[in-house]
Amino acid sequence: MRKLLLLGAGYGNMRILLRLLNKDLPEDIDITLVDRTPFHSLKTEFYAIAAGTVPDSEIRVALPEHPQLTFVEGEVSRIDAEQQFVELGDGKKLQYDELVIGLGCEDNYHDVPGAAEHTYSIQTIGDSRKTYQTLLGLPGGSTVGIVGAGLSGIELASELRESRPDLKIKLFDRGPRILRDFPERLSNYVKSWFDEHNVDVVAESNITKVEPTCLHNHKETIPVDAVVWTAGVRPVLPVRELDVEKAGGGRVVLNEYHQVPQHDNVYVVGDCAALPHAPSAQLAEVQAEQIVTVLRKVWANEPLPEKMPELKLKGFMGSLGKKKGFAYVADRTVTGRIARLMKSGLLWFYKWHNN
Length: 355
Description:
Residues 3-282 form the FAD/NAD(P)-binding domain. Its cofactor is FAD. By secondary structure, the chain is an alpha/beta fold. The chain has two domains: 2-36 and 74-106 and 233-299, FAD/NAD(P)-binding domain; 109-231, FAD/NAD(P)-binding domain (3-Layer(bba) Sandwich). 28% of the residues lie in helices and 28% in strands. The protein has helices at residues 11-20, 46-51, 115-118, 125-136, 151-163, 184-196, 237-240, 281-299, 337-353, and strands at 2-7, 29-35, 40-41, 60-61, 69-73, 76-80, 85-88, 93-95, 98-101, 105-107, 143-147, 168-172, 199-202, 207-211, 214-217, 220-223, 226-229, 233-235, 259-260, 263-268, 315-320, 324-329, 332-336. The longest helix is centred in the C-terminal third of the chain and has 19 residues, at 281-299. The chain is globular.
């Protein structure tokens, strides 16, 4: 049997399984999926767990079942691309013929003193539960700082505002305006929502130190009762320790077939891959579709395509609480209730399609 090993049950590997586990899967292919949890988590919705507006049961999707698929619950500790095995935290080693690394990322603290020790996270479902417990336990009038005004920070701030109207919320943004890389109309809409709902957006911030009860922004000291860090990510440790070419941020450089050039039987999907777009669930799925095409060619001993299609994204969607939202699709800006319904519909369709 030929062994395909998938590391991580994230968006990329779930799409790979969705496309492979059908009547066209060669009978001599044995697939093993490794993840720390026995289900697929909708990472794009972790902010809602942390804010306490959605139980985590609503953002879990069951893993697929198939006679040629084996699931192994565990934590990846080491990847040996030379010897073609992966070691888990309990010492177990899994051999492979082809490997797809989809382990995702962890918070990037950018060497800010105290950030790792004194902030909370929404990078994993376990992190999000801990963050929820902390935020839930804060007394009324407490101040929550959210460092990073990307999509995760925006959605967490808005959802927390609706679930805990008694809290003071400060959202720290390094840029001069929210979502500065997108049309100003979009930025203005999100900022106006925050103004209307009494969320303090601190523009052009630079957090230089985090202490248990305060943030240092430039030379200003800001008292806080809890801080959630959403200011960037980096690949997880086993990927950072891989002896392969890396790009900015420690992401793995790939060839056009999504293979590691030094090891063409190793593929990287999702947040750990050096790609021309910012990491996202959508990007991981688009990339996964192409990896499936390449795998099928390799298994059939057919030549790979001379040129792979460009990775094209349709846009993005974000929520502002349960009733409003924003979207940028096909170079058009959509805001308000319609945008929120679009995101809710997309989430429903994804869960239905993968269940």
